[in-house]
Amino acid sequence: MSDPKIVKLVDESSNRSSELPLINGTLGPACIDIGTLYKDTGHFTYDPGYGSTASTKSAITYIDGDQGVLLYRGYPIEQLAANSSFLEVAYLLLNGELPKPEEFKTFEHDVSHHTMMHESLKNFFQGFHHDAHPMAMLAAAVASLSAFYHDDLSVDDPADRKLAAIRLIAKMPTIAAACYRYSVGWPLRYPRNNLEYVDRFLHMMFEVPSEPLQMNPVAAKALDLLFILHADHEQNASTSTVRLVGSTGANPYASIAAGITALWGPAHGGANEAVLKQLEEIGTPDNVESAILRAKDKNDSFRLMGFGHRVYKNFDPRAKIIREMCHKVLAELGVNDPLLDVAMKLEEAALKDDYFVERKLYPNVDFYSGIIYKALGIPTEMFTVMFAIARTSGWIAHWIEQHETPGSRIGRPRQIYTGSDVRDYVPTAKR
Ligand code: CMC
Question: Is the pTM of this model over 0.85?
Answer without folding.
Answer: yes
